[in-house]
Queue: 3 jobs
Job 1
Amino acid sequence: MEGSKMEKFMPRFVGALILLFVVFMYVPFPGVPTAPRDSRSPLPEDSFILPERSHNLLRPFPAMLVRPDNPTSTAKVELGRLLFFDSILSGDNTISCAHCHHPDLGFSDNRGQSMGKGGDGIGRQRAGGAVLRRGSPTIWNAAYSHRQFWDGRALDLEDQAQNPIQDKNEMAQDSTELVRELKAIPRYVRLFTDVFGNADGSPVTFRNVTYAVAAFEQTILSQNSRFDQYARGDRTVLTSTERRGLNLFRSLKTRCFECHNFPTFANRDFKVVGVPDLDASEPDLGRGEITTEVYNRAFKVPTLRNIALTAPYMHNGIFSTLSEVIDFYSDGGGPGRGLHVPNVDDKIRKLNLTSREKIDLIAFLHTLTDESAKPELPPSVPSGLPLVPRLENQSPELAVYERLEESRLPSQITRSGRRLLVEAGQSIQDAINLAQSGDTVLVQLGTYHESLTLDVSGVTLLGVEESGQRPVLDGDHTLSDGLVGSASDVEIRRFAVRNYSSNGVMINGGRNVTFRDLYFYDTGLYGVYSVECVGVLIERCEVTKVRDAGIYAGQSKDVVVRGCIAYGNVTGIEIENCVNTVVKNNETYNNSGGILVFLLPNNPSKISRNCLVSNNLVHDNNHVNFADPTAIVSNVPPGTGILIMAADDVEVTDNEITGNNSYGIGVVSLEMVLEAEDGFDVDPAPERCWIHDNSYGGNGSDPHLFLVEQGFPGADLLWDLSGYDNSWDEPNAVAMPPILPGKSWSDIARRANWRLWKILEAVTG
């Protein structure tokens, strides 16, 4: 009888358990999703694009945005050229495209606010017409831009061409009337027929007008400036002033290159920098007018090529000269000028540039001038209407700029075979300027007050070491960077680098780069900074007293950091948006955070993947965080041992992690630290990370207020419940939450564990 009752009871009991489990797993609970966000489908490998396309300063231009149905031909370009200069495109037959984009005026009009319908004259002398809100952006290299106009409302050149023709305040032409006028001109009919054929009726259509104009604009290319010649290896074309400006441009002091990167000197983004409005009562919201308020006051990042020809500057021409622009950024953009700009870009901050640095920057910007491919004005147009005349460029910038030719005798550098010998009192830069691929620049003991440029590939920069002493690069607390370069196959070894305001040594866009046996003290934001590189070795380096990361690798591939010591910094070692990285046999202590593996938004590389962190000593990282409040690392809580944020496929094993007051290892989402009203352009959750076989002691004893306020007690292991497929096999570690999924856990067990902690989190607040 008892057996019979049990036989009847068990199916009901099992059924009840299954029902309870289903209710637990899938019935909505206030504030708790029924399942974790599953983002295990990784982004494609080409999400990591930059290093594959970068090589030193000489970098290929991106592919032009050419419509498949609008292939370029010589005949189409010529038709587009004639239309571009023909005033028949305007309603009153007085305005051509060239009135606002004159080839002699940098393909702009030298006006802060362009003038359309009803105006007379060209450029700064134009008067009597409708004044537009914004200036005419240059057409130089516009074919490489993914959107057109300051607010990006046009997708491509074809889309852009139709807008000003039909705008009532610009050319004020009716598209139907334009087609009628063109059809009445036999030469145009022949030209359109030759280019587009007549299989579908008349080839003279408004669409074909815009296609021809776009084809012509695709040929307006500037790619042979003195900077380009320097990038191709001619080290004689830039003065020392211009080289210093190049260094400063790509320096972490200014971060100009992060928005105006090589080779286009533009990017795909729309940025808020706080440009003052000409009329405060009528603010220009820029891209925010056609998208969302997140982009209020955001404007397209323009190319800097031929920038000296296109003054005045900014979308509204509020600044007459480059000097005024540089002053604006040095002051900290709009906020630095006292304007309320709630969504200003995080790179906008006070630069506090010296007068010398401003001169150097402006000198470099003038090296971007190249009109060698400027098209000629046609002798006439088929309509017979008057052409715009040849003009003298009226850019105020040209009137105030004077190129500084610096003449000094170089130090007497001795060459011995493939070695260039630098004695104390000589200039290391003079030796680098003489170096060729395969050479070693051998630097004797001494103190060298220089900021070096290394753009020659295949060079070894080697310091002589005697009795533990090395040559010293000393910035005197006035120079920005110890060394900046974009060279490949280089090694920098055996130097002490100290007292720079921005960075110790920085290589951008190099391949096979080695930093070895270097000591950094008080070098600004970073000690070692490698970015957009492929193949980086950072070995036996020691870094202290920097305001961001002692050792940094960003947007790079195949990176090894080993045998290094970092202490007294905001962060010891930082790996950001990299692929295939090893961090091994290092010691980090007395930093705010020991080792960081990040995936951050708003970078060309959209993934951070495959990082091994092993056999490191990560202890007592409890230093107060003294980063700039606007920097992302300012959010790293003191007491952080190892922090994985949004990065995928990170393995942390065989490390000794002790005495970190907040936590030993944290695995968290971007959403824990950063806010993004419009979402992130990267996957914010860490995935497939594996934490195992580490040793712990004394972590989490005094967690930082930031964690306490979010309800996180101190622990060896911290997980914010983001990321679905992460694993922890650390039976002797104190964890938050107390039960973390292991490598062998099933999918259903992972989901149940996650659901439990999310419900408890919601209940406890």
Job 2
Amino acid sequence: MAYEKKSIRAIIDDVNSRRVYLPAIQRKYVWGDSQITRLMDSIMLGYPIGTFLFWKVKKTIVNQKEYSMYEFIKDYHDRDMYKNLAAPQPFPIGSGDETIWAVLDGQQRLTSLYIALQGSMSRKLPNKRWKNDDAFPKKELYFDLHSEKTDDEDISYEFKFLTAGEAAKNKDDKVWYLVKDILKYSAEDLLTEVIIPNGWETDKVATKNISLLHTRLVTDEIINYFEVEKDSIDSVLDIFVRVNSGGTVLSKSDLLFSTIVSHWDKARDEIDKLLSEINKKGEGFKFSNDFIMRTCLYLLDMSVALKVETFKKDSVLKIKENWDAIRKAIKDTVDLLNEFGFNSENIISYVAVSPMVYYRYKGGNFDSSSKAELRKYIVIAQVRQIFGTASNSALTSIREALKAAPTNSFSMTNLNAVRFTGDRSLRYSVEEIDAMFDTYEIGAYTFMLLSLLYPNLKYSQKGFHQDHMHPHTGFEESKIKGLVLPDGTAIDDVTKEDWRRRRNTLANLQLLEGRENEVKNATPLVDWLKVPENSENAKYLPGDVSYELSNFEEFMEKRQELMSKALKDILLGLSEKDTVVFAGSSNKNLGNVVYKELISLTRQTGAQVVCDFEGQTLIDSLEFQPLLVKPNNHELGDIFGVKLEKLDEIEKYAREILAKGAQHVIISMAGDGALLVTKDGAYFAKPIKGIVKNSVGAGDSMVAGFTGEFVRSGNAVEAFKWGVACGTATTFSDDLATAAFINETYEKVEVEKI
């Protein structure tokens, strides 16, 4: 390799004259404005800016091998952040330009210099919509000629991206000079063409700085570089990986991307196009190569570990062959995220999106039911922070669960059993839901939870803000000082601080269309609700309470109750279509309170409950009208303080249980058969002869058999027969009965109405 030097202007001229390009193996441009201005400051200070590595290759080789090359970004725009124009294909040859340089190391620095000295930067302004062109003012790099080198400041020479209008204001004695203009002049013309026309001949600081700027950018040869000459992309890729894996400049996904490009020449164009499309959806996203690469691996059931060796030629060709389907699944999923109201400001984990894409890729439908469950998944996965340091493991676990589930519909039920690092899961407890109201303050997490509570808003058509019901400014000292509370006392400092914290929590937040929120502004809640339309549309609004700020405590308590109930209905994952089985004894220290609360919450969702308890726990469950209770004859007798042996006596007391709320009662009588009592009659299952091997699990098996069939058919007698078959088959087995033996036993079940 040869070691060479050039000035910055000379290398910029090479880029302009199309002698220097970027190979497709290079990652995207990722530097921020501060990195560019720091680079310029280092140049002014005379600091080394590192070496560059160029691949010198003949155009004939590039054309023959169909290697993809790209031009440098000149005018950077946040909406097209991934866009590099493709170099001409094939390269024209002649006029002494038979070779080109492709940058192997230094592309971030060289791109930054090219933008700074030839182009512009268009960053999105905060609080502006992505679709608004005015949100991206075009700015160029300026240098404050009154900057002076100091030893106690982080930056000595001030560079800044400004609009022409901003630069012209010259505030705070700053003299802004458009940096790109310095390249136009020779050292001899600097005085007559720049300094004198601008009236700087008496401004010593400005004269010194403009001269130094010219020296550093035009005269000094500070671009130090090596050249390598290779014809094979594999040899170049090896150099590229070696050079860039020694530090932290490139991520694993960047190196991974380079290997993909080496086997699939059009990969960069395809992925660039996809990223451009999905990142412009709605209010905008920030999907990256990392997401695309990992998702490709994920969809094709490969390991999701980002390793260069993962992407061998066969793997890349598999991605290429399935690219159309992969691209469609990703685009469909991003459309759905936009419909849910997600964007770059409120989505935390892009990794969490991959399972949604997997579901779609495997043929999953986006019907109303699946959409509701998918919304629930993306919120829970992020709020519970499932995808942390062990994201690969989490992704793999979810993929295995999705493989085992039906492919056409999505249900969180299929993921509830998945366990993650730290014994985390996608399931919530009642206590965890209640804790949300103190845990999260206004931000991405509260938006996610509010999106569950406000599922019917047209997020893709309008921008919705998190609005404080009691306005944020209403808690300022000037407005809250001397406030009289409902009990007649004046508000104290402790209460003020508590309210100021709680104003940002979930119970004081709602989702409001952006323009409506701007109109509402600092309007007190009590006044805002006087408008009929507002009070009619406000959700989770507690009735029979004052909406004056002085009643903030009660308002928050009552609204939290409403929102908590709704979140429990959603996050506990139950509906009227579900049936939940409760069985076993709770910890003695807790008594029946745990079961009573859980059963109550379950029934509030519309779901049925099956209660396999004894004693007082069974009695307490009856107020919730369980679908089934199943005491044995001895347990039934203990409840009523009698000894039950005869069938008519057992039926009599079983009907007492029925009268107290149970929908169906099964009394198991060991070797004497079983009895089903319903509002329509009583049915006796005759005992089945056989050898008892193990009675453990027989009762649970009976409950499972009854519940499974009843949920399927709604036929209590048929469900009873299957319950008897399951329980008996387990009794006659060394372990739980097999399906084959249960089917065999079912044929022996005899049930008669008594």
Job 3
Amino acid sequence: MNSPSVIVIGAGIGGIAAAAHLARRGLAVTVVEKNAEPGGRCGRFTRAGHCFDSGPTLLIMPDVYAAEFAALGAALRDRLDLRRVDPTYQLVFDDGSRLALTSDLKAMQAQLDAIEPGSFAGFLRYLDEGHRHYHLAMERLVNRDFRAASDFFSLGNLPLLFQLKPLARHYRHMSAFFDEPRLKAAFTFQDVYMGLSPFEAPATFSMMPYTELAHGVWYPAGGLYRVVEALMDLARQAGVDFVFNAAVERIDVVGERARGVTLAGGQRLEAEAVVANADLPYVYQDLLPADGRAEQLARKRFSCSVISFFWGVAKAYPQLGPHTLFLADDYRGNFESITRNLPLTDNPSLYLHAPARLDPAMAPPGQDTLIAIVPVGHLTDSGEQDWRVIRDQARQAVFKRLALLGITDLEAHLKFEVDYTPLSWRKRYNLMKGATHGLCHNLTQLGYFRPGNRHPRYRNLYFVGASTHPGTGMPTALISARLAAARLLEETPGR
């Protein structure tokens, strides 16, 4: 293999997109990936005619996807067959009551006022605030690269302290809009996407329920993995080379420069620059020389993890919508158990995805493909967690919750089951602590406070992905890729 100009470690969403950006600008780019297929946490597998997305199961912020695909020279709608999901979620509460989150304002008014009379007015005010937060945050924080403190701590950004409400706790702030705890939960559960509890997340994150309702929740025909396939097509068209089953043992550094990588088999690949899409704390701990920075990262706050169940079912359950979320009355206790790594509660909040409602090809005729996700704490340093026991508790919690919908025979109709625990996430993707969202997004790990996209010493080593700026999630990974690629191009001599 000829020595490439740039080596990208990891073929996750961010790695593929960064490679495509760089190749489109004329650099020779090789992506090395430890697994046999691309996608990282946005994975896929099939069994007995059932197709599963093993990571994200819904597409939000479609305007970001459209902009990032356009930056790669492609029209999103030409690459993906997107189908809008409305209602976005069916929320089910402990008393059996339900709330279908929908962009149909008349339907929302009837549902909300039935739960809390007069609450629709609060809902409209909440959406208005979410609109402001979304557009301000995207323009001033997410789509910007904070390379120096002065980029962030400026007079121009000072009003954001008041406009984005970063110092207000999200759940407590909900009292300005609703009195009913079920409604407060219905419009804050999205904070778990950031790896946070709504009881500690900044009120800024009202932007998430806003974008889901205003811009829509979408599903690509064929599943979320189609996003990976579309990006792979763009990268290969740009000339990117991919090497799979190629685990990186270390990043080779000399002085203040990265010189390439050494693979697990001993093969050395030289490069003018390296882009790491592997989990950032893992990169510092396992791939770079010890210098104290890995320990600093390990002391930061990590996101939660999840236990995921993938079920091939010999029977269809049409009463299940595409996205069903069971929210526990003990909302605070649930999040405390997750964020403080406490034992799983007896009645955890959990999520169920039925992709065949959106694309019948995801399951054999007359059968069902189901994915159940139970948020849990990440791996602790003590290693005292018994994940077999916790997994079995989570499994029974799902069956118990399904009984609220009249489904009591699912276990009897299972053809097979695959499960991922935090141990699985760590093994498959080198995620430190098995934290599925990387570093969490508390106030001191946002914007300039989040690890930057270039190493402070090795000045041709760049980072993309969940634990660097701007943060976790598929759309933000695409932004991360564009920002890191632009910086590399700007700082590469002769470019």
